[in-house]
Amino acid sequence: MSVNSAFLKRKYWIFDLDGTLTVAVHDFNAIRKELGIPAGLPIIKTIESLPENESLPLQNKLHEIEEKLARNASPAQGVKTLLETLQRLDYSVGILTLNTRENAWFTLEALGLAKFFNEEFVIGRWCAEPKPSPKGIQKMLEQWEITANDALMVGDYLYDLQVGRAAEIATVHVDPSGAFVWPELADIQVNSLNELAGLLSK
């Protein structure tokens, strides 16, 4: 585990949603198979690259898959503790997800977490060029009227860390397995959101 506590003083936190605020349930290989996308290819970019008559049915099918997953989502360990701690410290929070904004909000409501977020700071895949492009983060920084030095990206996957680096903001890797396979991309490594909340309380 590595921690640079100076980064925790940044008052604008951007979270990935699936697998970070929720327990990871997305089997991306199974989703690719269901959509007929070859193994290893990025789902969103592949769908976007297709002609509209092929792309639209796949977008709809993906939306249905994600809606089903959203209905069955479970909160990640420590998510409420962390969000309550951030709220108490008067930090601002947002979400950058490869999910749609609608599904992201539906998930937050299903988990009882919507009260911590403002919908305009939930950026889904059609709101800006998707991760790992920094455009979603840049959009949020502009909305907050802050610089990259004020913000932090929290996520469980490679794209979350890459997008943080691309936008030049600090990164937190949450990995319950403790493997931390991209150490060069993470400023802080924690096993859970509970652990992150504990670091904030120190």
In words, what does this structure look like?
The mean pLDDT is 93. Strands 3-2-1-4-5-6 form a six-stranded parallel beta sheet, sandwiched between helices. With 202 residues, the chain is of the alpha/beta class. 34% of the residues are buried. It contains eight helices and six strands, in the order βααααβαβαβαββα. Helix content is 41%, strand content 12%. It is globular, with a radius of gyration of 16 Å. The chain folds into two domains: 5-24 and 74-201, 3-Layer(aba) Sandwich (Rossmann fold); 28-71, no CATH class. α3 packs parallel to α5. β4, α7 (158-166) and β5 form a beta-alpha-beta unit.
Mean pLDDT: 93
Q: Tell me the overall shape.
A: globular
Rg from Cα: 16 Å
List the uncertain runs.
none
Write out the strand line-up for the largest beta sheet, numbering strands in chain order.
3-2-1-4-5-6
CATH superfamily of the largest domain: HAD superfamily/HAD-like
Helix and strand element order:
EHHHHEHEHEHEEH
CATH top level of the largest domain is Alpha Beta
Q: What percent of residues are in strands?
A: 5-15%
Q: How does the major sheet shape up?
A: 6 strands, parallel
Number of strands: 6
* CATH architectural group of the largest domain: 3-Layer(aba) Sandwich
Structural domains: how many: 2
Class from helix and strand fractions: alpha/beta
Number of helices: 8
Gap between N and C termini:
16 Å
In the CATH hierarchy, the third-tier topology of the largest domain is known as Rossmann fold
Percentage of residues assigned to helices: 40-55%
